[in-house]
Amino acid sequence: MGEKTMGVGMIGYAFMGAAHSQAWRSAGHFFDLPVKARMTAICGRDRDATQAAATRLGWEGVETDWRALIARDDIQLIDICSPGDTHAEIAIAALAAGKHVLCEKPLANTVAEAELMVGAARKARTHGVRSMVGFNYRRVPAIALARKLVGEGRLGEIRHVRAQYLQDWIIDPQFPLVWRLQAERAGSGALGDIGAHIVDATQFIVGDHLAGVSGLTETFVKERPLPTSSSGLSAGAGGGKGAVTVDDAALFIGRFHGGALGSFEATRFAGGRKNAIRIEINGSLGSLAFDFEAMNELHLYDGRSSNETGGFTRILVTEPEHPYLRAWWPPGHLLGYEHSFTHEIADLLTDLGNDTDPTPSFEDGLQVQQVLAAVTESAAASSHWQTLPTRARTAA
Amino acid sequence: MGEKTMGVGMIGYAFMGAAHSQAWRSAGHFFDLPVKARMTAICGRDRDATQAAATRLGWEGVETDWRALIARDDIQLIDICSPGDTHAEIAIAALAAGKHVLCEKPLANTVAEAELMVGAARKARTHGVRSMVGFNYRRVPAIALARKLVGEGRLGEIRHVRAQYLQDWIIDPQFPLVWRLQAERAGSGALGDIGAHIVDATQFIVGDHLAGVSGLTETFVKERPLPTSSSGLSAGAGGGKGAVTVDDAALFIGRFHGGALGSFEATRFAGGRKNAIRIEINGSLGSLAFDFEAMNELHLYDGRSSNETGGFTRILVTEPEHPYLRAWWPPGHLLGYEHSFTHEIADLLTDLGNDTDPTPSFEDGLQVQQVLAAVTESAAASSHWQTLPTRARTAA
Amino acid sequence: MGEKTMGVGMIGYAFMGAAHSQAWRSAGHFFDLPVKARMTAICGRDRDATQAAATRLGWEGVETDWRALIARDDIQLIDICSPGDTHAEIAIAALAAGKHVLCEKPLANTVAEAELMVGAARKARTHGVRSMVGFNYRRVPAIALARKLVGEGRLGEIRHVRAQYLQDWIIDPQFPLVWRLQAERAGSGALGDIGAHIVDATQFIVGDHLAGVSGLTETFVKERPLPTSSSGLSAGAGGGKGAVTVDDAALFIGRFHGGALGSFEATRFAGGRKNAIRIEINGSLGSLAFDFEAMNELHLYDGRSSNETGGFTRILVTEPEHPYLRAWWPPGHLLGYEHSFTHEIADLLTDLGNDTDPTPSFEDGLQVQQVLAAVTESAAASSHWQTLPTRARTAA
Amino acid sequence: MGEKTMGVGMIGYAFMGAAHSQAWRSAGHFFDLPVKARMTAICGRDRDATQAAATRLGWEGVETDWRALIARDDIQLIDICSPGDTHAEIAIAALAAGKHVLCEKPLANTVAEAELMVGAARKARTHGVRSMVGFNYRRVPAIALARKLVGEGRLGEIRHVRAQYLQDWIIDPQFPLVWRLQAERAGSGALGDIGAHIVDATQFIVGDHLAGVSGLTETFVKERPLPTSSSGLSAGAGGGKGAVTVDDAALFIGRFHGGALGSFEATRFAGGRKNAIRIEINGSLGSLAFDFEAMNELHLYDGRSSNETGGFTRILVTEPEHPYLRAWWPPGHLLGYEHSFTHEIADLLTDLGNDTDPTPSFEDGLQVQQVLAAVTESAAASSHWQTLPTRARTAA
């Protein structure tokens, strides 16, 4: 391991903060990294709660004001795990202060905010200050393998992209109005929270961007009990009710620049589906299928195989030849959800050590935001087609 | 078994004709039916080929003119298995001649034709002459069970309908321009051929109709070799090329009258998927999932089960308590594709014997045709939303 | 189709009789056969019940004495579907009378009976009178494909054979004492009824015989209500109780002549498993896996594939290149349980037309009986190893 | 978190050492533990290699003599991750020195060694010095849930236990003769390495012990290239060949005290199976099925459900109601292999903090060793039945 050490400051310590912390703690023990991360401080509004989190999660210090965190000389990287409405202000300030930034997805709650962030990132980049948006699913080995196989042309010309992100955690109408159900905090509902992941993951895999979309959104449960506390994925219900101001589900169809058709669905109302990210790609030469509920598997169909023995091959993505796997256990010994973050941190530290820009970039985050905005606009305009800004295919 | 016998005349003897023949031969051996079907004659243009088919498929006689078939006194039921462009004329003539009609799906190639057929069916019905459209997948036991469970309210209020019909048989650009790829014969491509099935099957299961749709269609391979013969699913390629005038794939999103969102996809370009009819329904109280490639299974999620032991239950739909199964083998002894037709014929003969109208009716076929037309129109209008004619929920 | 017609007489018309009847009715409609079967008569003890069965199942006439059936000049083939204790006497008489014989498995209830039957079959064979034992699962396309792949050396040297036949139909201690639970009628329990199938199927697939076994059997429910009627898989319970004289479950391990290890289990007490025939074969170059509950699938692992994209390929055994499939539907349109019998009859009629001996032969049936007997003996002798008679590898 | 801190010394730093290290680093960040573990030192023979491992794995210091490690005052717990032939001497010395011991499985290479270790553990226990054997799979949440459900009687009386541990890592005859293939280091081959896991896991789940067994073992590849280095799961091949002195595969059948039949298979020659631990339990009221290659799932069949909607329910074992899951992520966010060790350490530290004896105990390890020895003896005696020492059912 290298000698260079980098102080990290993290903002937010709920679900994402816990996942990131495990990654910060673990990456260096499994990957040979040019930079050693020091878990310097986390930041939250309540000092006692933040201190308790720091102890639990393994951070050395705490701050209660994110501006103070950014200002610290012993911190060179800011990891933003707070709700979406805070991303733009924090990220822009951090970059301006010369701090590298890892920002959780979605990059921002609006395209306008995301554009400002991209501007800040571009400017900072000229000074060697780098930024990354946290689409962790890119680092699930099976998804990284999918991208590699598509990039090598194994599937030929891509014709179909089919993606669903299905959850069911708010199916109960008595589930309270947590911040993720409030437009002013979360921007959108299923669309931005989970739809963003499948937009990014599919574009990443096929190496192409959506060129246009037609969408539909719905809020099935229009009022919910006010929560006793506004953070987290769950919370007790307090008195009174409030309006749900985000979508419960979003569906859209679209076309990629390269001609593929896309079908997307994000919902929090698919009973029995807990975190089912299902992606299927069909090309002229083959197909791929993935389901996060069996995240260590990738199913590959090679259209050039004989009819006699052809079919989908279930690849158990645990071989040393698979992305990230050389760092882990023998074949057949599965990885879990948190490993996607460990890989994200390992890749980020590698890029920082090598003075290269990490991906996905803020530009990538903006592009996803543009897709989400187009879906919302289409849904508001009788599903009329919304053309997306042209952008070259992503680099392999 | 009853004493009443009914002469059947079938038009067309390719794929559908062979499937129907096995059903006509088998239904009475497994189900106790009030009417006995006699396989009187089949009709095709080429006498020798038709005679060979009659021998092979078990029909007593042959005709080379469908009008002659309809005119025969010893035939009381006409089974139409010819391409879609012939349905309207034959069905209308047969009904006018007082013959019951079973017409393969899609009912017609256009809404206008389908409306004429519905008119004819209504008129005939007043004289006890009955008609049915052949959406055979309704009679797959797992799908019939799905409808029963939804009809009993087991899933609560339906929120999501997700359906894909995936095939790959024309993925090779050298596959010839068979009649199913010609608009004037087939009406549409994947949309009408297989999309029609998932529109009907999902509406049947949820007992509700689509209220509006937004669609997208594509023809990936725009020119193909001319075939040496124009019938069948496969054919040798002759000289020259011709334009593919139907869609290779159709995607659409929609809303049901009851508020459910729908996501549909029909394609013949999903490499490795041979006949994958995948249907998933999410309701406020539970979910269902089905894949025809495992057609003897239905997966049921009961949202009221405990978190500790809840999940999707794989029901092997081979118990005597399941639809149609009492007629067949002990539990665990699977049924196949052709059984859906045997059930269709058994139900049809039961209805005819009981003087009740079989379902799906020509009105049901017209309604599906209206959905397909709306998808086509939306696709031609920048995916703009197309509202469908209002119609009450289907009877349970 | 050829001109030669052969009269068939079937004995027994319960579960197996119904399955065979559908096969006799269907084979000629799908396969091009040199001999046409005529369903001349069935035989049962009760004339009214037998007549009703004949009408339902499509047989022309009835007999109430199997000797009379055998004596008929218009019958050239006897299909034995009665309980195991009747097989030897009927088959030997039929062969002596110059009638071809298809005998349901297990060939007999004892090795001694089976040996007599083999003697009769050998003698008859010299006169062109042929015989076959009805191990229908050999004709499940996925199993026939498995044999073909192993025969071609795709799996290399076979190391492991793993087979389970799991059912649960008598798990309820109130299920009555039907004939299949009586040693004098059925010979043995799970061992002979379903264990016989996996012995035959695995030996067929690997093309090798078991060389020795060590076994264990158990009767979990030792007394059951007497049935009101003794035939069939289910029956009402009458008054009184009787001793269960067959095994409820049988387990054994063994070695094949070629060095493979075998692990076998047959039980009627595996709750939730209805007809789960699970076979897995591991060789030096690859592996195969099959489960009858998904009978249209075969899973193949090619050990020479790269680690990056290797894994088990799910072959949907519905392609024209697969055994028996050219006769049926397009790819992806599944077959069911009964098709194994249709294939059996098609193969039998083809062999009879071609004057070749059908397989599996009575010798094959005897060899399976020897394995079952060795398991029983081992179970009675503290699981001590029982060496089986040497016999050359089966012909490919 | 509590204030008490305990120094840990670990011996061995290969595969098991890496897995244990991640657990020692992580347990306290996810579980609220009464004792804080300090990763004081690891021990290996080569100082440089050990120092590099210490740095990589997060240990403060190193020792090159395990006796020195045990002697350190700042170490209260010894974690034994070295090969099986070292377990007895180290564990007995550590316990005698008043150090708690966590010993990897199998407890020892022989029953005699295991008995000495049990003696040492019992003596130490009287002084509050505790011991545990590392059967980590007990802490896979799905397996812990299986035990809970069986313990609650959900499956009724247990009739069948079916377990396979399938790997393929030495299928290549050129794979070298690593220490795991040498009897004097590893004791046995597949039997002790992986067979031990399924013996323990199934006995744990059903809460009962095997009463007798009949076994079979085989060494398919009898000679292998000598390795260049003797540690680890893989190694380069050096010059010359040596005899494989352990089994490549072991099969056995058995009976549990409670009457259940057991079928077991452990092999390193199942091509395409990487770490397939498959366990199936059938009881009078229900069944369970598990496969480690889908380790976050448990399949439960409730025999009291209706035939109409019954079947195996796929429980995604990621709910807060499931064992260990409250510490981790939201539902649907999977865990991996390493979490079984984190749970093991968390349980161990909890027990040490609460002054209770951890499980599985050395007695449990001995009992597994007795089963393995009985299999070996039976295999050497023509599979003759070997009766196991009587022992009461395990406590729930």
From TrEMBL, chains A, B, C, D:
It comes from the Bacteria. This is Gfo/Idh/MocA family oxidoreductase. The lineage of its organism: Bacteria, Bacillati, Actinomycetota, Actinomycetes, Kineosporiales. Residues 145-288 form the GFO/IDH/MocA-like oxidoreductase domain. Keywords: Oxidoreductase. Residues 7-125 form the Gfo/Idh/MocA-like oxidoreductase N-terminal domain. InterPro entries: Gfo/Idh/MocA-like_OxRdtase_N, Gfo/Idh/MocA_oxidrdct_glycsds, GFO_IDH_MocA-like_dom, NAD(P)-bd_dom_sf.
